[in-house]
């Protein structure tokens, strides 16, 4: 009976952990997609090795959904950048530059 209870308790916990990891992966792909989509629009040039190192450090090797989520977000953000006002673009690019520097994608 104790073993059955342990299994019954562990399954939802395991599913919840997997769902949290999926959400974390999606959030990271969305955020990184915003930074990458902004590179050209903000006049930046990112260090490709730094981006690769960021992926190695922050994305699980078996995360099959990360790349497609990243691609979708990057594409969506690029289209959104085209409709920004000058002030929106200034604010956006200022923060993107700061984020890119903090992760070593560009040198300050």
Q: What is this structure, in a nutshell?
A:
By secondary structure, the chain is mainly α. The protein is built from 4 helices and no strands.
Describe this structure in words.
The protein has about 110 residues and is mainly alpha-helical. It contains four helices and no strands. The longest helix has about 40 residues, at about 1-40. It is globular. The N and C termini lie far apart (about 60 Å). It has one domain.
Helical residue percent?
A: over 70%
- SSE pattern, N- to C-terminal: HHHH
Number of domains: 1
Number of helices: 4
- Beta-strand percentage? under 5%
What's the N-to-C terminus distance? 61 Å
Q: Shape, please?
A: globular
Rg computed from alpha carbons, rounded to a whole number of angstroms:
18 Å
Average pLDDT = 88
Oligomer: single chain
How is the topology of this model organized?
Layout (H helix, E strand, L loop, with lengths): L1 H40 L6 H11 L7 H16 L4 H17 L6
Helix pairs in contact: 1-3, 1-4
Keywords: Signal
Provide tags for this entry.
78% helix, 108 residues, mainly alpha, signal
């Amino acid at each position: 009976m104790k073993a059955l209870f342990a299994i019954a308790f562990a399954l939802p916990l395991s599913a919840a952990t997997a769902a949290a990891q999926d959400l974390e992966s999606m959030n990271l792909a969305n955020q990184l997609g915003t930074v990458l989509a902004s590179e050209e629009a903000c006049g930046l040039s990112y260090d490709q090795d730094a981006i690769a190192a960021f992926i190695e450090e922050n994305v699980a090797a078996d995360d099959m959904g990360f790349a497609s989520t990243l691609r979708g977000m990057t594409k969506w953000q690029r289209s959104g950048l085209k409709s920004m006002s000058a002030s929106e673009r200034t604010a956006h690019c200022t923060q993107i530059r700061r984020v890119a520097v903090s992760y070593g994608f560009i040198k300050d």
